[in-house]
Amino acid sequence: PKQPLVLGIESSCDETGVGIVRGTTLLTNTVSSSMDEHVRFGGVIPEIASRAHLDAFVPTLQEALHEAGVTLEDVDAIAVTSGPGLAGALMVGVCAAKALSVATGKPLYAINHLVAHVGVGLLDSKPDAGAAAGQLPQNLGALLVSGGHTEILRIRSITDDVELLGSTIDDAAGEAYDKVARILGLGYPGGPAIDKLARQGNPKSIRFPRGLTQPKYMGTAEEKGPHRYDWSFSGLKTAVARCVEQFEARGEEVPVADIAAAFQEAVVDVISSKAVLACKEHGITDVLLGGGVAANSRLRELTGQRCVSAGIKLHVPPLDLCTDNGAMVAALGAQLIMAGIGPSGIAFAPDSSMP
Length: 355
Ligand code: KG4
Ligand code: ZN
Hints:
alpha/beta; Nucleotidyltransferase, domain 5; 2 domains; 5-stranded mixed beta sheet; 12 helices; globular; binds 5'-O-[(R)-(carboxyoxy)(hydroxy)phosphoryl]adenosine; binds zinc ion; iron; KAE1/TsaD; tRNA processing
């Protein structure tokens, strides 16, 4: 069909997402999160996430169908995240999708979660989602920043040509926020708390290290270093811990807001500078921001400014489409169908470390 009706299922982490699209039009995006159950552990517990998916899946599916005003019979295809993510969590969504496919006879598409974060930019029903009439910009990049990933990608074709230009070599950006928030006693998830507190602090009060920015890692435009477009956040996290210890050892009050602001500045500075550098050196003219850390006010601000200076257009989808959701899975499934690519069948297994 020209404008296929696609049901998308997402269960790679703590969000149970069911989204429905018709071609490039978003019909509904229903998400249930188990985050409340993980808060007291200070991180997502895989076993709890898996069980929560099991509880939430059918109600989330029913709500999505109801909101979109369609039935399973109307659907042309089912798309499901098959990786990367938590193995047990992925398995719930994949099993549910396979069962629906077998029961209804609808074709099933296995979807790469990271590419789906980009595919969401093709939805045309929201302002500035990155696309006009279902067409991705020609020289497109994607900056994905969340609790699980920190990557800069070049997208030549959403269906078959996505290239990884750079990524974190240790913690993901959101993970760094969460770990530093724990050090500062701000609770979990830490991103929103640090973002808020940082507004009351002085980002210049302390200078935290920017990982992998030394010449031996960066090289030059002609002779690129081994980590020119990569990030590292574990040294930064350690530097924050040392800093807190020093204030405590001196018996001084820990300037939590200043540390939050200075930490945030270090993260955002290095993310935006390396992403913009990678884009400039690859002729990328449009870049899509995705992942939970895309909610960060300073990241949006500084990346926006640097993109303007570099002549790059930054696309920031609405926040509910930046965080994990089923609509992005459905959107990419629809793209595959419209590109004439056949379904995956039901013999695939979830792949928690899918590249
Ligand atoms: O995309 P997401 O909902 O889930 C995955 O990790 O895939 O991202 C969650 C991450 C958490 O680490 C959270 O601390 C971070 O995004 N986050 C933020 C902000 N809001 C959420 N980090 C910085 N600033 C924020 N405003
Ligand atoms: Zn994600």
